[in-house]
UniProtKB/TrEMBL annotation, chain A:
Originating organism: Mediterraneibacter catenae
Residues of the CoA carboxyltransferase C-terminal domain: 314-564
Bound cofactor: record note: Binds 1 zinc ion per subunit.
Known function: Component of the acetyl coenzyme A carboxylase (ACC) complex. Biotin carboxylase (BC) catalyzes the carboxylation of biotin on its carrier protein (BCCP) and then the CO(2) group is transferred by the transcarboxylase to acetyl-CoA to form malonyl-CoA.
Tree of life domain: Bacteria
Cofactor(s) this protein requires: Zn(2+)
GO molecular function list: acetyl-CoA carboxylase activity; ATP binding; carboxyl- or carbamoyltransferase activity; zinc ion binding
Full protein name: Multifunctional fusion protein
Automatic annotation (TrEMBL), chain B:
Pathway the protein acts in: Lipid metabolism; malonyl-CoA biosynthesis; malonyl-CoA from acetyl-CoA: step 1/1
Complex and partners: Acetyl-CoA carboxylase is a heterohexamer of biotin carboxyl carrier protein, biotin carboxylase and the two subunits of carboxyl transferase in a 2:2 complex.
Enzyme Commission (EC) number: 6.3.4.14
An example molecular function term from Gene Ontology annotations: biotin carboxylase activity
The organism's taxonomic lineage, starting at the top: Bacteria, Bacillati, Bacillota, Clostridia, Lachnospirales
Name of protein: Biotin carboxylase
Residues annotated as domain Biotin carboxylation: 1-445
The protein's enzyme class: ligase
Biological process (GO), any one: fatty acid biosynthetic process
Sequence ranges assigned to domain ATP-grasp in this UniProt record: 120-317
C-alpha cells in the first residue's frame, strides 16, 4: 500500500493558542558549516574535539595557543619573546598598518609562538606557527623567534618541537625573509650537533621556505593527516606544467609514501606520541645505556651468567647434533618456509613500545624494511628488520622482503639517528636478496648497499645483526656489518641463492641442492668459518606459535651482548668492528 | 511558542505524538532517515524533512541536522519522544540556546538526573529511599563485614571498576560474607587490576514499579499512579500494567509521595518516571528517573483518562497542570504488550522485512499504537518494536482475558513477531496469579 498523500493534513486554522510567543533563532556561531564536508556542525563540539569535524573527521587549522593547550601539561607553558618590535627591512609601504591590524584581530604578536612546556612531564621547547597571521609566512621576527628558541634549547639541553604551518616567505620582507631559512636551519644544526632532539610536526598547510628549512629538518618528522605539505604550491605547479595534479598530491600520506614523513599522527594521539618520543630520547645517551646494562651484568654475575654460558654451549652442541640429520638444502628450504617467524614477530616479542618510523628522506618508504625505536629491558634501542609478510597481500606490500635502495637508505638514516642519540642498533636480517629491477638500478641499489657497508663499519654505537631466515648476499650484508652476527639454526647466509650459484657455475639452476652443500651457507658452517659468532637453536617446525623459547634465548643473549659492547668506547667499538671484517 | 511541532523520532511514538498534535490543531513536522521515506510517521505528518542516511547516528541522533530542520520548516517546538535524543542534555541545551521549545525537562535537570551518583545524592537528601550501600571504598573483608551489618543482609559486593558480573558476589548471611568478599575482590584484582570494592544491600526478587509524574513550571507536581513492569527480558520491558497488584492503597500513597518528593527535589518539569525496585517486604528503593515519555505511557493514560502527550505539550507551553492530585483516580486495569519484529525461538533475533499481510484487533477497551501497515517494510536499522497492544477492563482478570483475546486476533505476515510468546506469558499461571518479579522471563528459560 502506498501512503503518499493519502492522509488528510492538519487544518491550517490552528485552534491551539500558544501562551508563549518566542520564535526559534539560532545564535550566530552556534552552528558552523564544515569547509570540508559541508555538514552543519556544532562549533563547541569542534572546540572540545581537537578541532576535528565530527562528521568527516577533517582537520581544522588550530590557533597557536589552542595547539599548546592540546599538548602541554596544564599551566606548564612559559612563553618566550612574546613582545618583539616591528621591523620593516625593505620599508615596505603599508606593511606596518597591515601588521598592526592583524595584531589587533588575532591577539597575536607575530606568526609564531615560542616557549617552554612540559608534555606529560617531559620538558621541551616548542614553536607553533599560527596561520591566521599572514598565513604564518616567515619574516624576520618568525625566523628570529625560532632561532632564539632553538639557541636557548641548545644551551639548556632541551629538545625542540616545532609545529609548522606556513605559506612560505614573507614577501614584504623580501630577501631578509629568505635569509630566515638559513638562520633557522643554522640554529637547528648547532642544536643537532649538540646531540639534541628536534621533532617537527607538519600541519596544514606547510609550504615554501618553511618546508625548505626547519620543517624538513626534524630528527623525527611527524605530520597531521591529510595536511598539505610541499615546496611549491599545487596551484603554481599546475600552472607551470600545465597538467592536473593527481588526487592526494602533496598531502601527508603522499609524503609518507615518498619517505619524507616518519609517521602520521592523529591529533588526539599527538600529546602521547610526543611524550613517548621525548621519553625515548631523554632516557637514551650512551652513559645511561651503559649504566643500565652494567647493572644487568652484575645481577647476572650473581645468578647464572656462567650456567647461561654453558647453556649456550649446549645449545650449540645440540645444533651440531641436529645438523647431521638435515642437509644444507633442507635448511635452505626451512629458512624460506612460509610460516617461519618474520622480522615483525621478533620485534613484537623482544621489545616493548615499538614506534615505527618511515622513509629514507629521499624518495620512498620501502616496506621491505621496518624500523624504529623500542625499549629493550627499559633501554631505548633502534630496531631494524627486513620484514617478510605473513600473507600474500602483506608480501606484495613488503616486496617479499627484497629491499629497494630506499629501504637501505631508510635503515641507514635510522642507524645514523641511533648513533646521534647513543642508541644500540639491533638488526634482523631476512631477505632473498636486494630487489632486482629497473627502478632499483635507477636509484642506485649498488650505491645504497655500499654506503651502508661504509657507514656501518664506523657507526659509533653497538650493532648486532641476527639472521633469522634468508641472508641473501649484499642485500643481507648491508644490514650485517655488525659487532656480532648471529644466526638462527636454520637460517642461511650466502653470496647468492643456491639456484643462482648453480646457474652461474654449472649453467643449471636445478642443481641448487647440490650447490647448497658446497656453498657452506648454514649457521654451523658459517660459525666454523668464523663469519658469525653465535647460533641460536630452533624447535622443530619453528613458527610464530612456538617461538617463545627462541625469544627467551635471544633475549638473554642480547642482554649480555649489550652489557659487553656498551662497555666499549666508540673508538674501541669501531676498531673491533674493523678488525672483525679485516681478518675475513 | 508552540504552533508547529517537529517530532524528532520515528515509529509508533512519532505517530502517537503526531496524532495528539493533530487533535490539538498543532501542525506537525516529521523528520525521517533515508530508510524511513515510506514510514507511517513520515506520511502522516503535515510536513516531512529528511535528516540523513539510515544509521541513526547520522539521522535521528544528528542534532545539528534536526535543529536545522526545525528552523527551516518553521517549527517552534521539538518533541523528542523516547530513545534517540530524548534524554540527551546537550540536545535539550541546544534547543534552549536556539529558542526552540523542548517538550521535556530543562537540560540542566536531564543532566543531573543522568548522572547516577548525583541523582542518588539528590534522592538521599530529599528523603527518598535508595538502595543502602557503603559510601567509601572498602579494601578488606573485616571492614566490609561491619558495613554489611549496618546495611542489612543480603548484601552484594561489587568491584569499583566492575562490569559484566565480574568481581560481584552476593552474601546472604554474615557467615558467607568473608568468603564472598574475598572471592569478589580476588576476581576484581584479576579482571581489572584493582581491588577497590563497594557493598550494597542486595534486593532479592524485586518487582519493577515505576510512578508516572507530571510537573509544571509553576511548582505543581502530581503522580498518576504506578506501572508494574516486572516482565522484562535483558532489561527490556515486554509487558506493563497499571495498577500493580502488589501495591496496597497505603503503599501506593507512600510510594507516590516519594515519587513526588523525588521530582520536586530534582526541580523536575514535564512528564517523567521514577523507577523503584520493590522488595517482597514492601521496602522500595529509588533506581533512576526517566526524563521523557515512556513506551508504556498508554496504560497510565487508560486508567487515569489523562492524555500524557497533550499534557506534555501544555506544560512545555508554560500552562499549569490541568489536574490536581485529588483529580487523579485509577479506574479499572490496563495491560500493554509490546509487539516486536523478532524471533523468540532464535534468541529473539530481530526480524526485519516486508509485512505482506496484516490484521490488527479492535473493539471496546482495545488500543493499538503502531507504525506498521500492510506492505510496510521494517528496516533493519532501528529498534524492533512494531506496535503496542493495550487493553483496558474493569479488573486485572478481565484485562488478561481481553489481552489474550486480542493477541489471538493479531495477524502479521511476512516477518517473525513475538505475539505467540506474549500469548504464552498471558496464559502462565504465575502471571495470572500476579506472582511475578523481574526474573520472571529469565526463569522461564
Amino acid at each position: 500500500m502506498n501512503l503518499k498523500d493519502m492522509f488528510k493534513k492538519t487544518s491550517g486554522r490552528s485552534h491551539y493558542i500558544s501562551l508563549r510567543n518566542s520564535r526559534p533563532e539560532v545564535p550566530t556561531g552556534l552552528l558552523r558549516k564544515c569547509n570540508k564536508c559541508g555538514a552543519a556542525i556544532i562549533a563547541e563540539d569542534v572546540k572540545n574535539g581537537y578541532y576535528i569535524c565530527p562528521k568527516c573527521h577533517g582537520y581544522f587549522r588550530v590557533h597557536a595557543y589552542r595547539r599548546i593547550e592540546m599538548i602541554a601539561d596544564e599551566g606548564s607553558f612559559e612563553e618566550w619573546d612574546k613582545e618583539m618590535d616591528f621591523v620593516n627591512p625593505l620599508d615596505f609601504r603599508g606593511y606596518e598598518e597591515k601588521i598592526h591590524h592583524l595584531k589587533e584581530r588575532t591577539n597575536l604578536n607575530e606568526a609564531v609562538v615560542t616557549g617552554k612546556v612540559l608534555i606529560n612531564g617531559n620538558p621541551a621547547v616548542v614553536g607553533v606557527c599560527d596561520g591566521r597571521f599572514m598565513m604564518a609566512s616567515m619574516g624576520w621576527i618568525v625566523g628570529e623567534k625560532i632561532a632564539r628558541a632553538v639557541e636557548r634549547a641548545t644551551q639548556e639541553k632541551l629538545p625542540v618541537i616545532i609545529f609548522t604551518c606556513s605559506g612560505g616567505a614573507r614577501m614584504q620582507e623580501g630577501i631578509v625573509s629568505l635569509m630566515q631559512m638559513a638562520k633557522t636551519s643554522a640554529a637547528l644544526k648547532k642544536h643537532s650537533d649538540a646531540g639534541q632532539l628536534y621533532v617537527s610536526v607538519l600541519t596544514d598547510p606547510t609550504t615554501g621556505g618553511v618546508t625548505a628549512s626547519f620543517a624538513m629538518l626534524g630528527d623525527i618528522i611527524l605530520a597531521e593527516p591529510k595536511a598539505l605539505i610541499g615546496f611549491a604550491g599545487p596551484r603554481v605547479i599546475e600552472q607551470t606544467i600545465g597538467q592536473k595534479l593527481p588526487k592526494g598530491f602533496q598531502r601527508s600520506e603522499f609524503l609518507l609514501d615518498h619517505g619524507f614523513v616518519d609517521r602520521i599522527v592523529e591529533r588526539e594521539e599527538l600529546k602521547d606520541v610526543l611524550s613517548q618520543i621525548l621519553e625515548m630520547h631523554h632516557s637514551a645517551g650512551a652513559a645511561e645505556v651503559k649504566a643500565a646494562f652494567k647493572k644487568d651484568e652484575k645481577t647476572e654475575d650473581k645468578s647464572d651468567a656462567i650456567t647461561g654460558f654453558e647453556n649456550n654451549g649446549q645449545a650449540e652442541n645440540m645444533a651440531e647434533q641436529i645438523k647431521d640429520s638435515l642437509s644444507a638444502w633442507d635448511r635452505v628450504q626451512i629458512s624460506r618456509k612460509k610460516d617461519r617467524p618474520v622480522g615483525t614477530d621478533y620485534i613484537d616479542a623482544l621489545f616493548t613500545d615499538f614506534m615505527e618510523f618511515h622513509g629514507d628522506r629521499y624518495y620512498k618508504d620501502d616496506h621491505a624494511i621496518v624500523g624504529g625505536i623500542a625499549y629493550f629491558h627499559g633501554i631505548p634501542v633502534t630496531v631494524i628488520a627486513q620484514a617478510k609478510g605473513k600473507t600474500t597481500k602483506e608480501n606484495l606490500d613488503r616486496n617479499f622482503s627484497m629491499p629497494s635502495p630506499d629501504g637501505y637508505r631508510k635503515a641507514l638514516r635510522l642507524m645514523k639517528q641511533a648513533e646521534k642519540f647513543g642508541r644500540p642498533v639491533i638488526c634482523f636480517v631476512d631477505t632473498p636478496g636486494a630487489f632486482c629491477g629497473l627502478e632499483a638500478e635507477e636509484r642506485g641499489q649498488g650505491e645504497a648497499i655500499a654506503r651502508n657497508l661504509f657507514e656501518l663499519s664506523g657507526l659509533k654505537v653497538p650493532v648486532l645483526s641476527v639472521v633469522i631466515g634468508e641472508g641473501g648476499s649484499g642485500g643481507a650484508l648491508a644490514m650485517a656489518v655488525a659487532d656480532e652476527v648471529w644466526m638462527l639454526e636454520n637460517a642461511v647466509y650466502s653470496v647468492l641463492s643456491p639456484e643462482g650459484f648453480a646457474s652461474i657455475l654449472w649453467k643449471d639452476s636445478k642443481r641448487a641442492s647440490e650447490a647448497a652443500e658446497v656453498m657452506k651457507l648454514t649457521a654451523g658452517d658459517l660459525k666454523r668459518l668464523g663469519i658469525i659468532e653465535q647460533v641460536i637453536s630452533e624447535p622443530e617446525d619453528f613458527d610464530a606459535e612456538n617461538m617463545e623459547a627462541v625469544c627467551e634465548e635471544l633475549e638473554g643473549r642480547i642482554s649480555s651482548f649489550l652489557a659487553d659492547y656498551t662497555a666499549y668506547s666508540s673508538e674501541e667499538l669501531t676498531a673491533r668492528r674493523y678488525d672483525r671484517f679485516r681478518k675475513m | 511558542m508552540i504552533g508547529k511541532v517537529l517530532i524528532a523520532n520515528r515509529g509508533e511514538i512519532a505517530v502517537r505524538i503526531i496524532r495528539a498534535c493533530r487533535e490539538m490543531g498543532i501542525e506537525t513536522v516529521a523528520v525521517y532517515s533515508e530508510a524511513d521515506r515510506d514510514a507511517l510517521h513520515t506520511q502522516l505528518a503535515d510536513e516531512a524533512v529528511c535528516i540523513g542516511p539510515a544509521p541513526s547516528s547520522e539521522s535521528y541522533l544528528n542534532m545539528q541536522n534536526i535543529i536545522s530542520a526545525t528552523v527551516i520548516s518553521g517549527a517552534d517546538a521539538i518533541h523528542p519522544g523516547f530513545g534517540f535524543l530524548s534524554e540527551n542534555s546537550r540536545f535539550a541545551e541546544l534547543c534552549e540556546q536556539c529558542n526552540i521549545t523542548f517538550i521535556g525537562p530543562k537540560s540542566q535537570v536531564i543532566q543531573s538526573l543522568g548522572n547516577k551518583s548525583e541523582a542518588r545524592n539528590t534522592m538521599i537528601n530529599a528523603g527518598v529511599p535508595v538502595i543502602p550501600g557503603s559510601k567509601d571504598p572498602i579494601y578488606n573483608a573485616e571492614e566490609g563485614a561491619k558495613i554489611a551489618d549496618e546495611i542489612g543482609y543480603p548484601v552484594i559486593v561489587k568491584a569499583a571498576l566492575g562490569g559484566g558480573g565480574k568481581g560481584m558476589r552476593v552474601a546472604q548471611t554474615p557467615e558467607e560474607f568473608v568468603s564472598s568478599f574475598n572471592t569478589a575482590q580476588k576476581e576484581a584484582q584479576m579482571a581489572f587490576g584493582d581491588n577497590t570494592m563497594y557493598i550494597e544491600h542486595f534486593v532479592q526478587h524485586p518487582r519493577h514499579i515505576e510512578f508516572q509524574i507530571l510537573a509544571d513550571e509553576h511548582g505543581n507536581v502530581i503522580h498518576l499512579g504506578e506501572r508494574d513492569c516486572s516482565i522484562q527480558r535483558n532489561h527490556q520491558k515486554m509487558i506493563e500494567e497499571s495498577p500493580s497488584i502488589a501495591l496496597t492503597p497505603e503503599l501506593r500513597e507512600k510510594m507516590g509521595d516519594a515519587a513526588v518528593k523525588a521530582a520536586k527535589a530534582a526541580h523536575y518539569t514535564n512528564a517523567g518516571t521514577i523507577e523503584f525496585l520493590l522488595e517482597k517486604n514492601n521496602n522500595f528503593y529509588f533506581m533512576e528517573m526517566n526524563t521523557r515519555i515512556q513506551v508504556e505511557h498508554p496504560v497510565t493514560e487508560w486508567v487515569t483518562g489523562i492524555d500524557l502527550i497533550k499534557e506534555q505539550i501544555r506544560i512545555a507551553d508554560g500552562r499549569p497542570l490541568s489536574y490536581k492530585q485529588e483529580d487523579v483516580h485509577i479506574t479499572g486495569h490496563a495491560i500493554e504488550c509490546r509487539i516486536n519484529a523478532e524471533n523468540p525461538a532464535k534468541n529473539f533475533r530481530p526480524s526485519p522485512g516486508t509485512i505482506t499481510d496484516m490484521y490488527l484487533p479492535g473493539g471496546k477497551g482495545v488500543r493499538i499504537d503502531a507504525a506498521i501497515y500492510s506492505g510496510y517494510t521494517v528496516p533493519p536499522y532501528y529498534d524492533s518494536m512494531l506496535a503496542k497492544l493495550i487493553v483496558h477492563a474493569k479488573n486485572r482478570n478481565e484485562a488478561i482475558r481481553k489481552m489474550r483475546s486480542a493477541l489471538g486476533e493479531v495477524i502479521i505476515e511476512g516477518i517473525d513477531t513475538n505475539v505467540d510468546y506474549q500469548y504464552e506469558i498471558l496464559n502462565h499461571p504465575d502471571f495470572i496469579s500476579g506472582n511475578i518479579d523481574i526474573e520472571f522471563i529469565e526463569n522461564l528459560g
